[in-house]
Amino acid sequence: MGFLNRLKESLAKTRQGLVEKIESLITGRQAIDENLYEELEEALIAADVGVETALELMETLRCQVRERKIRDPEQLKPLLQELVRNTLSAGENSLNRGGPPTVILVVGVNGVGKTTTIGKLAHYYKSRGERVLLAAADTFRAAAIDQLEIWGQRVGVDVIKHKEGADPAAVAYDALQAARARKMDMLIIDTAGRLHTKSNLMEELKKVRRVLGRELPGAPHEVLLVLDATTGQNAISQARLFGEATGVTGIVLTKLDGTAKGGVIIGIRQILDIPVKFIGIGEGVEDLRPFNPQEFVTALFER
Ligand SMILES: Nc1nc2c(ncn2[C@@H]2O[C@H](COP(=O)(O)OP(=O)(O)OP(=O)(O)O)[C@@H](O)[C@H]2O)c(=O)[nH]1
Ligand SMILES: [Mg+2]
């Protein structure tokens, strides 16, 4: 099955909660009135789009209805689809490149899918002919290092590691040296969602950033924050926390498969002004793709 069909399948519950709900509100209506606007707004909020974003979308919708002199409620669906597409298309979705190597730091709270995403990213770029190296800078527990190594073996890329409990910045430093010596195109660095010590996670991540930037000006070229779509609006508070502290440049939204909370992607784009760069729709190597707003909106709105 192609990725678009897989994506459609993944978004089935979100479509039910959002698009089909909107359709059911519109069907049979004679006029676009205040009641309808309010029901649409509630539907957006219930679908995890977020209050702020739902209000903004509705405001734009009202303006467009007035400007384009739309009378028929049936025309609201394509209009909403267009507004969602515009929201998701704002900003640059492609990966920032630099180096070589392009250095990608992957951050996020525990369990959101960082390590899995790194395995999938390594596979994606390797299968496009790039030389990829991984770094196990999540030194919180030995199992985290093992998990990254298993991914490395699965996709056929090397992993630079230290012992459990080692300084993540030291792992990152060594990995960058190795990546340069081996003429790698890309270095992807795994990090912990929590720490052994009482020291602050954000401070640790800042230190990793500093070390990378000192060794290779411009690095990390990308700080990818991994967010779990199933956490809905919580994902937005996590993004705020990490965004300020670690200079996040892009979002990876994982676990879109099977959740009804996929609408959160609209809120993330609207509120945070950080582009979504990849989406994850499963646990397999092929289950990650660069985020394509057009494709996403098609998969969400069209059956
Ligand atoms: N269904 C689904 N599961 C996913 C996806 N991405 C990751 N997972 C699963 O989520 C779980 C946690 O993934 P990890 O990659 O270990 O998460 P992590 O952020 O590295 O976790 P810590 O290292 O503990 O901080 C695993 O069971 C993954 O298989 C996805 O896109 N879809
Ligand atoms: Mg991990």
Pattern of helices and strands: HHHHHEHEHEHEHEHEHEEH
**What name goes with the CATH superfamily of the largest domain?**
P-loop containing nucleotide triphosphate hydrolases
CATH architecture of the largest domain: 3-Layer(aba) Sandwich
Q: What is the alpha-carbon Rg in Å?
A: 21 Å
Major beta sheet, strand line-up: 3-2-4-1-5-6-7-8
Number of strands: 8
Main pleated-sheet profile: 8 strands, mixed
- Approximate strand percentage: 5-15%
Low-confidence stretches: none
**What class would the helix/strand composition place it in?**
alpha/beta
Q: How many DSSP H or I helices?
A: 12
The shape is elongated
Instruction: Say which molecules are bound, naming each kind only once.
Output: guanosine-5'-triphosphate, magnesium ion
CATH topology of the largest domain: Rossmann fold
Relevant terms:
14% strand, binds guanosine-5'-triphosphate, 303 residues, single chain, 12 helices, binds magnesium ion, elongated, alpha/beta, Rossmann fold, 2 domains, Four Helix Bundle (Hemerythrin (Met), subunit A)
